[in-house]
Amino acid sequence: MEKAKDGYYFCYVEEDLPGFGLSGFGETAKAAKEDMMKAYQEIKEMQEEEGEEMPELEFFYKYDMQSFFDYFSFLNVTKVAELAGINPSLMRQYTSGVTNARQKQYDRIRVAVERISKELSAATF
Q: Residue 85: enclosing H or E segment and its boundaries?
C-alpha cells in the first residue's frame, strides 16, 4: 500500500498471479484496499464462469508510512512517536509526506507499532 505523488493511494499484489494482476486505487488507503478486494471478487467470478479454478489468496499488507497512518487513523501519531523515541513534529512530517524517514527511523517506528500490537493482543475486558 503506497500513497502516490498525486495524493491517491495504490494497493497491489507484488507476486505474479496466474493470468491476472491485482491492484486497487482510492482517495484513502481504506478505499484502495476495498477497490482491490472488489477486483479480486470480480476476477474470481469471471474465472468461475469460465470454468477455471481461482486460487484463494491470503493477503498480508505492507504499508508505506503515509498509508499506514491513513489506514490506522485511530493511532495517535504523537504517542507512537514518543514510544519510538522520535520527535512528534518530525513524525508528523513523515506521516504527511513532507519528509521521508531514513531506515533507522522506520525501524524504530516498526518496533513501536509491534509493541502496541502485542499489548493490544494481550488485552481483554
A: none
Whole-structure pTM value? 0.84
Task: Check: CB of residue 77 under 8 Å from CB of residue 88.
Answer: yes
The single-letter code of the amino acid at 31 is A
Rounded-to-integer distance, Cα 90 and Cα 108, Å = 13
Residue 120, C-alpha cell as written in the block: 493490544
Residue 110: band (very low, low, confident or very high) from pLDDT cuts 50, 70, 90: very high
Residue 47's SS3 state is: helix
Strands 23-26 and 9-12: antiparallel
Q: What is the rounded average pLDDT for all residues in the chain?
A: 92
**Cβ within 8 Å of residue 18, ≥6 positions away:** 55
Q: Which residue in this structure is represented by grid cell 486460487?
A: 55
Each residue's pLDDT tens digit, 27-60: 999 999 999 999 999 988 988 898 887 778 889 9
Task: Give the whole-angstrom CA distance, residue 112 versus residue 122.
Answer: 16
